[in-house]
Amino acid sequence: MRTGGSRTGVAFAVLSMTMVQLGLAASVGLFDRVGPEGAAWLRLACAGLIVLVLFRPRPSSFSRNSFLVAVGLGVATAGVTLLFMAAVARLPLGTASALEFLGPLGVAVVRSRGRLIWPGLAFAGVLLLTQPWRGSVDGAGVLFALCAAACWAAYIILTQRLGSNVTGMQGMGVSLPVAALVATAIAGPSTIPVMTWQLVAIGFGLALLLPVIPFSLEYLALRRVDAGVFGTLMSLEPALALLIGWFFLSQSPTLLQTIGIAAVVTAGIGAERTTRTPATALPCPDPSPARLTGATPPP
Fold first, then answer.
1. What is the pTM of this model?
2. Which segments carry the region annotation Disordered (predicted)?
3. Where are the chain's structural domains?
4. CA distances to 107, 133, 136, 236 from 156, in Å
C-alpha cells in the first residue's frame, strides 16, 4: 500500500469522524425547536431524499433476501439515530458516544480470541462514566444510549450480510430511505406541523454533514488503508466526541469521566486488534463511534 495513499485514507477517516461529531453537535441546536426526535427525523428524511437522487437504487441489484436485509438495516439505522439523539438530549455528547460504542465493541469482543480483558475494561469505563454511586446520572439517557448501542450492533451485523450481496452504494440507497420512513412514522406527526423552510434548509445541510459526506469519506478511506488500521482509528471516536462536546457544547467532563472514556476507547482498540477477522469500518447515521466489523466495504 502506498504511503501517500495511506496518509490520504487516514485523513479521510479523521475528517469523517470529525464531521460526524460536528453534525451531532449541530443537531443539538435544534432540540429547542423540534426536540431530539424531530432533529433525528429531519436529518434522516433529508438524507433519504439525497441518497435516492444520488444513488438511484435499482431493483435488479437486489435479491429478495438482500432487499429484506436492506429494509432491516434501515430500521436499525432509524433506531440508532432516534435513540442516540434522545440520549444526547440527556447526557454529554462524549458520555453518550462512549455508551453507544458498546454496541460495536460487543461485536468485536464476540469475534475476539476469548479475551475477557476488553469487556472488563469497557465495563469499568462505563462505571466511571455513569458513576451510579453518586445517584446523579440520568437513567433514561443511559438507557437510550444502551438501546442505541444494541441497534448499532444489529446495524453492523445486517450491513455485513448486505455487503456480501450488494455492491457499491445501492444498499445505502435503500436503507436510508427506509430509515427516513420509520423516523417519519415515529417523529413525523409531532414535527411536520412545526416545519419551516428554514428548518428544511438546515435539515439538508445537516444531512450532508451527517451522514452523506462522512459515509462517502469512509468508503474512500477504506480503499486506501488497511481495514484494521481503519477500525483502530474509528475506535478513537468517543474521545473525539468528548472534545467536540467540550469545545462546541461547553460540556466539561470530570476527571473520572475522562478516564472512563479513555478506558472504553482502549477496550475498543484492544478488541479490534484481537478479532479473528480484520475489522472493517461501516458507516453510521448518528454515530458517532467506531465501525468495528468483519464486513466488506460499506454498501
1. 0.86
2. 276-299
3. 2-275
4. 8, 33, 32, 18
